[in-house]
């Protein structure tokens, strides 16, 4: 893999789990990393300290990426610290928040899930795109749920991730002439706090056992694929929603 030396990377939701693994992996490849967080300040600082222990540069920036005002603050701090060229944007922030059936949904829950998962992807991309030039890469985190509708009670989550997948394709077309590549990952069952909180142990065991590889994935495996997509090795890869699910489902 081509290195990312001196590239500037912004990772939303970079304080834990997949986001943290991505931030650390990009740093290992040489990038300077902006670790965005909202609630998990301790996790964000731990991520930054781990990156610094590798001899790399990183800052933590608090911002609610579902808020346009906070996105402006994230952009301003990034530009102030690392200058006016951004090479890598990873739209990772997101969440399921709760499992709700159709009759349990209300407007506030709809807004919460759609804003955190989809609105953030749209408007963080809008904020940073003017500072991205030929060779830059945007990587969005979608989900296997975008393909199959997700598990019970996750209709808003899966729908928001479906929107991310479609937005990815649209932006690949729009930004391609500028030389900016846009891809998304569609992870399956990954061993993270997300599933600790929202997926029963017996369901996890059944799903993992149903994959050809007979296991859950891990955050580092997601991070490795993100690093590839961010690199020049993926220079002709754009507009893809890439499955990473142990073979559980195929495109």
Which key terms come to mind for this protein?
seven-stranded parallel beta sheet; 251 residues; 9 helices; alpha/beta
Question: Mind explaining what this structure looks like?
Answer:
By secondary structure, the protein is of the alpha/beta class. It contains nine helices and seven strands; from the N terminus they run βαβαβαβαβααβαααβ. It has helices at residues 17-28, 41-53, 68-82, 107-128, 145-148, 155-175, 193-198, 201-210, 219-230, and strands at 8-11, 32-37, 58-62, 88-91, 137-141, 181-187, 241-244. A seven-stranded parallel β-sheet has the order 3-2-1-4-5-6-7, with helices on both faces. Helix 1 (17-28) runs parallel beside helix 2 (41-53), helix 3 packs parallel to helix 4 (107-128) and helix 4 packs parallel to helix 6 (155-175). The protein is globular. The relative contact order is 0.15. The mean pLDDT is 94.
Overall radius of gyration: 17 Å
Shape: globular
Cα(first) to Cα(last) distance is: 25 Å
Number of strands: 7
Question: Helix fraction?
Answer: 40-55%
Give helix and strand order, one letter per element, not per position. EHEHEHEHEHHEHHHE
What profile does the largest beta sheet have?
Answer: 7 strands, parallel
Task: State the helix count.
Answer: 9
Beta-strand percentage range: 5-15%
Spatial order of strands in the largest sheet: 3-2-1-4-5-6-7
Q: Please state the structural category.
A: alpha/beta
Uncertain segments are none
**Average residue-wise pLDDT:** 94
Summarize the structure.
By secondary structure, the protein is of the alpha/beta class. The protein is built from nine helices and seven strands, in the order E-H-E-H-E-H-E-H-E-H-H-E-H-H-H-E.
